[in-house]
Amino acid sequence: MAGPHWAALGAAGVLLHGPITTARLPALAPGLHHSVIPPATTEPPPRAAPARPIALVAASPFQPFVRLAGP
Fold first, then answer.
1. Which pTM does this prediction carry?
2. 3-class SS string, 29-68
């Protein structure tokens, strides 16, 4: 059983993850920008298959949980 201390630590981690990551982005952005190598071709990338609107509507209630899970 986890206990209240571990639950509080988990909640603090979830609440601080977004602000800390967001605060670090301005410092990381220049390095990320300079590390990108543009593609050699100028034609547009291939488009993905169109999504079915009903599937997007059906999946929308799960979006907050997907974002909490992370990349």
1. 0.30
2. HHHHHHHCCCCCCCCCCCCCCCCCHHHHHHHHHHHHHHHH
